[in-house]
Amino acid sequence: MTFVKISEQPSLYDGLEKKSVHELLTDINTEDHKVADAVQKAIPQIERLVTQIVPRMKKGGRVFYMGAGTSGRMGVLDASELPPTFGVPPTMVIGLIAGGDTALRNAVENAEDDTAQGWADLQEFGINDKDTVIGIAASGTTPYVIGALHESRAHGILTGCITSNPDSPMAAESDVPIEMVVGPEFVTGSSRMKSGTGQKMILNMISTSVMIQMGRVKGNRMVNMQLTNKKLVDRGTRMIVDELGLDYDHAQRLLLTHGSVRLAVEAYREGDK
Asked: Other CB atoms closer than 10 Å to residue 124's CB: what's the count?
């Protein structure tokens, strides 16, 4: 089967420079509507990956996101949001980007073309067979990611990927490939648009469902969130008010004493009034 990069196909729109602002925004929005449908079609693949991650993580395994450019940034973004949201250590889900942290803000020339560097980056974290490596690349052809997935799989490590093209070289190196086919980008080849949006949606789905399965949510609430600002302290206090029926000041004292909603509620029920 011939591999075709749908993500690099010509845009369905032309003469963009001649369009009004309203036309541009409307057309971009029309294309964005296609993303959720593409993600929906990938749910069986996403489910397969999540159900294999959870038992590994319960044994102490970690998840590594790997990508270059926009894809790498999406992985780092999702990983960085999990500790404050779910109260987990930053070592549980780790985002790696070709070119290192410099590449978060600036393009690093040729970084994504190094086939060996991805595996070298993973080895710095002592990667093992309880871990999971998820490659992210709209094209499905990024050497940095493919090399890391190939070596990970050879070492018995679960591999997955998120790509915008079916039957890609990256998918061939993945135990669970997630193929989210969003079609040509509004600006031809600009995968920071629909592909990036879809990657963000899928990463949210993976990490949120894993964290819920790991017991980091109760009901529908972030009972383990870090209290890093006044907004979050207020949110946590109101959770305790709702859960225990206490007045606001009492609930806030409990929260600040114990550091999280979950610990405050447990302590109160054990007799710490």
From this structure: 8
**pTM, two decimal places:** 0.94
User: Which residue is catalytic, options 31, 112, 179, 185?
Assistant: 112
Q: What is the DSSP letter of 43?
A: H
Q: Give whole-number Cα distances, 113 to 144, 215, 247, in Å.
A: 6, 39, 58
Q: Is 112 part of the annotated catalytic residue set?
A: yes
SS3 content of the chain, % helix, strand, coil (to 5): 55, 10, 35
Whether 47 is catalytic is no
Residue type, 194: K
Identity at 151, one-letter amino acid code: E
Catalytic residue (one of 8, 23, 47, 81): 81
Taking the mean position of all CA atoms in its chain, how far away is CA 193? 16
Collect the ranges in the chain with pLDDT lower than 70: 1, 273
> Helix axis angle, 21-41 relative to 194-213, nearest 10°?
40
Summarised one tens digit per residue, pLDDT across range 151-186 is 999 999 999 999 999 999 999 999 999 999 999 999
- Write out the two tokens for 265: 């509620």
